[in-house]
Design a protein that fits this description.
growth factor activity; LRR_dom_sf; 5 helices; signal; alpha/beta; 13 strands; single chain; glycoprotein; two-stranded antiparallel sheet
């Protein structure tokens, strides 16, 4: 199988023109220099080594894995890429693994420093462990089918306001292990949001950042620099705030201070361990919960 795929790639490189899914042509003679051919061959070897991992991911998503789809071309500008080793010079699905509706761009070689151009039908994007630095308003503007975005382990320090505003179907957003100091407005249908291991402070998280997310179930904000607990929607079941700088809480943090009969049945797990706050000082702040938060009591 590996030999056949390499032969396929070599025939792809040697042809004078490559037809993209958009019907656009790339002029191979001027666009792909010898060093870029080496990049493609190295990338092919890397993808072959990860094939079993992709198959497992596809099965987890309930999709059929088809190795012939690895090299489907995504929408790209109709101009010849310049010389060099930047990932942006090559069609996305030559650098990534493209399944039906899913794009996998993990540890891309050469370095991926920006969100790649995606096929318009993309529903799941996995671009983990690259060197993406910024998310702009244009990155996802035309990909309204996205349901899951995973950008774990990049260098993202800025997300433009409105970058996710058109993603009305987005349910899961993973921004863990980046360098964020503030959050933009988040899509209203999110069920899981993960921003563990960033540099978030309370001033970088708007007061209503999560308040209006009525479908949110999992909220992960551990290992940041938050000084206070943000407003947590009623729908949330799990909230992780471990290893922050939270120093105190109030009657309104989890419960409704003026209602001693109020019960919050959905909130099953709260982690506050690794914070300066001494939870035993606030015994009446947890009366609405089924179980006490994990944290320092003495």
């Amino acid at each position: 199988m590996g030999t056949l795929r390499v032969l396929f790639l070599l025939s792809f490189i040697s042809s004078p023109l490559v037809l993209c899914s958009t019907g656009k042509h790339f002029h191979q003679d001027s666009a792909l220099r010898l060093e870029q051919q080496d990049v493609l061959l190295n990338r092919e070897a890397n993808l072959e080594a990860k094939r079993s991992k992709r198959e497992a991911a596809a099965l987890w998503l309930g999709e059929d894995y088809d190795s012939s789809m690895v090299f489907l071309a995504a929408d790209e500008p109709d101009n010849a890429p310049a010389e060099g080793g930047d990932a942006s010079e090559l069609p996305t699905c030559l650098l990534c693994v493209c399944l039906t509706g899913s794009v996998y761009c993990e540890e891309v070689v050469p370095e991926m420093t920006a969100v790649p151009t995606l096929p318009k039908e993309t529903a799941y994007l996995y671009a983990r462990y690259n060197k993406i630095k910024k998310i702009t308003n244009k990155d996802f503007a035309d990909i309204v089918t996205l349901k899951r975005i995973d950008l774990t382990g990049n260098l993202i320090s800025e997300i433009e306001e409105g970058a996710f505003s058109k993603l009305t179907l987005l349910e899961e957003l993973n921004l863990a292990e980046n360098q964020l100091v503030k959050l933009p407005m988040l899509p209203g249908k999110l069920t899981t949001f993960n921003a563990n291991h960033n540099r978030l402070k309370t001033k970088g998280v708007k007061a209503n950042a999560f308040k209006k997310l009525e479908k949110l179930i999992n909220l992960f904000l551990g290992d940041n620099a938050l000084e206070a607990v943000p407003v947590i929607p009623e729908s949330v079941r799990i909230v992780h705030l471990q290893n922050n700088n939270i120093t105190d809480i109030s009657f309104e943090t989890f419960c409704k201070g003026n209602n001693t009969y109020y019960i919050r049945p959905n909130l099953m797990e709260v982690r506050l361990d690794g914070n300066p706050v001494l939870l035993s000082k606030y015994p009446n702040s947890f009366t609405c919960l089924k179980s006490l938060p994990v944290g320092q009591y003495r």
